[in-house]
Amino acid sequence: MSGAAPGDVLSPDALEARLRAIGAERYHHRHPFNVRMHEGRLTRDEVRTWALNRYYYQTRIPVKDSLIVSKAGDAAFRREWVQRIHDHDGEREGDGGLALWLRLAEAVGCDAAEVERQEHVLPGVRRACDAYVELVQTSDLLTSVAASLTEMFAGDIMAVRIAAFEKHYPWVEAGGLAYFRSRTQQAPRDAAWGLRYVREHATDATSQARAAAALERKCDILWSLLDAVERACARPRLAPHAQLRFDSALERWLCVLPERAVALGGSGRDILERCTGDETSEAIARALAARPGAGPHARDEVHDFLEQMARHGVLRFLPAGAARAGEAATARPLAADTGARAPDGPATDGCPHAGAEPAAGASRTARRDGPQ
Amino acid sequence: MTAPRPFNLVAELSYRCPLRCPYCSNPLDHASVRDGLDADDWTRAFREAAELGVVHVGLTGGEPSVRRDLEPIVAGGAAAGLFTHLVTAGLPLDPERLARLQALGLRSVQLSLQDAAPEASDRIAGTACFDAKLAIARAARRLDMPLVLNVVLHRDNLDHLEAIIALARELDAERLELANVQFHGWARHNRDALLPTRAQLDTAARLVARERRRPGPDGSGGGRPELVYVLPDHWSERPKPCMGGWGRKTIVIAPDGLVQPCHEARSLPGIELWNLRERPLRACWEDAPGMRAFRGEDWMREPCRSCPERARDFGGCRCQAFALQGDAAATDPACALAPGRDRMLALREAASRSGWHYRGDPTAR
Question: What CATH code would you report for A12-233?
Answer without folding.
Answer: 1.20.910.10
